Amino acid sequence: MLPRAGKDQGMFKGKKAIIFGDRDGVPGPAIAACMKAAGAEIVLTATECFV
Amino acid sequence: MPDPVIAAFSCILAHAPGFVRYGSKPSREIADRPALVLSAIEGHLRGFEEVVAYPPNQVFIGNLKPDDLHGIGQPWYDHPVFPAPRRGPYGEIYQEELLLGMIKLADDFGLVEIEKDSAPLLQGLLESHPFWRGADPGRIGQGVDPGRVDGLIEHSGSLPLFHGGRRVGCVNRHHDRDDNLKAHVLMENLLAKASGALALKNLLRSADIGGDGIDLLLNCSEEAVGDRYNRGGGGLAKAIGEMCGCVASTGCDVKAFCTGPLYALLFASGLVKAGLYERVAVVGGGSLAKLGMKFQGHVARGMPILEDVLGGIAFLVTGDDGQSPVVRLDAVGKHDIGSGSSQQNILESLVLKPLDRVGLKVTDIDKYAVELQNPEVTVSGGSGNVPLANYRMIGALAVLRKEIARQEIDRFVREHGMPGFAPTQGHIPAAVPFLGHAMDGIRRGELNNAMFIARGSLFLGRMTQLSDGLSFLLERNPGRRK
């Protein structure tokens, strides 16, 4: 599927993002991929295990 | 050659309230605010009888089934089981005095000193326990003078041992400039060794064999035994085996974070099927670091500190005996390096691919054992209900494959899942605490199969962003169908 054009791709344009993922939820790299696609600059990505 | 079987299983708990202060989270908080945090911890510790009567612990040793927890009101710590035997079909819940005696029994290097006031009690407990009668309890001897322990703690980096709010001895370091041989690390390793030995002894009893009946030992504990030149070098498998009289066995440690028990089981199964070994025991001891991990949440909510036990697991893999449940080696699920890290990627690798390989549907599996952390421990600590989240994901996969409707996910979770009941001891809750229940369910004809799924957080070591996972399918032995 082609990426959707329009404002979704720029939702976080000009924004910096610090990402904390959860081993049992959504891992950091997966969130980072989405945020990057939405225009964010990824400053830090970490995934933690809370158990 | 037929696939191997799991012929016996054991799991134990050791009550360790005096060690909660040495868990990773408590020890860091105590360093910041010693008096405040210590008194909060001591005010929320449970007694041994409460620990034995705690419903999830009764499930762990096999006196209750996991699904029995659905019928017990929460919080479970307010609904103790009565009567609550300390022994169950899979193992025993040990009091702290025996654990203290065990770490002295596990000590080959003069690392543990027991004070003379406490020595007779610990020695008496070991001598009266069927596993350790005659197992050199003379190591405890008369005990040492409290003044010696004072000096070791003050000048030599020793850490005090506590029981019932009273100092009973200390653990010494074994090198003054080696972080891997400092008292705290050695305490962690000794506790893993001692609790692993308790699990292995229960396994041998369950299998009705002597220690010399084991060919190979694989230790899947999470500790990093070694000195300054070889942190994590290993050796705990043989150390545990030596304590349990496994004189005809060799062994080594398998490291894979929480996936360790499943890798060890996979290796054991492969080695048995290949004919290299006949009887392989997998053993895992408890994790000191995890004690009191969520204590702040528990204290803030006026709950008892529930992470006050060390766990231990062991299981025996042998060639097909025509009776015991089979590990299907054609249905092993693995999380490849290139699989991707999303939940969907992981569960497709661990659940769907192996099922597709053997022509089964998601709903053909009677029970899924995922990471079985007790939610009462984790939810109050802000970490959510881990097993429930995993069951919902597996249910969602069944929806995506049109095996069930979306509105049937809750029913799927209830029928194919179970409430978490294992202590948050890292590798201990990694699906395998259900092994005994699955073996019994299959033997009674209530289950045909069960899938075991464990996940590992490789990224915690900061060498890769990858996570890990492994799964296997346990099935009724075809020999039993005849």
Could you characterize the architecture of this molecule?
The complex is a heterodimer of chains A (51) and B (482). Chain A has one domain (10-45). Helix content of chain A is 20%, strand content 29%. Chain A has one helix and two strands, in the order βαβ. In chain A, strands 1-2 form a two-stranded parallel sheet. The longest helix of chain A has 10 residues, at 28-37. With 482 residues, chain B is α/β, with parallel strands linked by helices. Chain B is built from 17 helices and 13 strands. The two termini of chain B are 19 Å apart. The mean pLDDT of chain B is 96. The A-B interface holds A 23-30, 45, 47-51 and B 341-343, 371, 373, 378, 381-384, 386, 389-390, 424, 429, 455, 457, 459-460, 465, 467.
Element layout with pairings:
The complex is a heterodimer of chains A (51) and B (482).
Chain A: E1 16-22, H1 28-37, E2 41-48
Parallel strand pairs in A: 1-2
Chain B: E1 5-15, H1 24-32, H2 34-42, H3 48-53, H4 55-60, E2 93-94, H5 96-105, E3 112-114, H6 119-128, H7 146-155, E4 159-163, E5 166-171, H8 183-207, E6 216-219, H9 236-243, E7 250-253, H10 260-273, E8 279-284, H11 295-300, E9 309-318, E10 326-334, H12 343-357, E11 367-369, H13 375-378, H14 386-400, H15 409-416, H16 435-443, E12 449-456, E13 468-475, H17 478-481
Parallel strand pairs in B: 1-2, 6-7, 6-8, 11-12
Antiparallel strand pairs in B: 1-9, 3-5, 4-5, 8-9, 10-13, 12-13
Strand order of the largest sheet of chain B: 2-1-9-8-6-7
Average pLDDT taken over every residue of chain B: 96
**How many strands, what sense, and barrel or not for the largest sheet of chain A?**
2 strands, parallel
Number of domains of chain A: 1
* Multimerization state: heterodimer
The H/E string of chain A reads: EHE
SS summary, helix count of chain B: 17
Q: Tell me, briefly, the overall form of chain B.
A: globular
Global Rg of chain A: 12 Å
- Coarse structural class of chain A: alpha+beta
**For the terminal residues of chain B, how far apart are their CA atoms?**
19 Å
Query: Main β-sheet of chain B, in a few words?
Result: 6 strands, mixed
What form of chain A results from the Cα inertia axes?
Answer: elongated
Number of helices of chain A: 1
Amount of helix of chain A: 10-25%
Mean pLDDT of chain A: 84
What is the strand tally of chain B?
13
Helix content of chain B: 25-40%
Distance between the termini of chain A: 36 Å
Q: How many domains would you count in the coordinates of chain B?
A: 2
Taking pLDDT < 50 over at least 5 consecutive residues as the criterion, the unreliable ranges of chain B are none
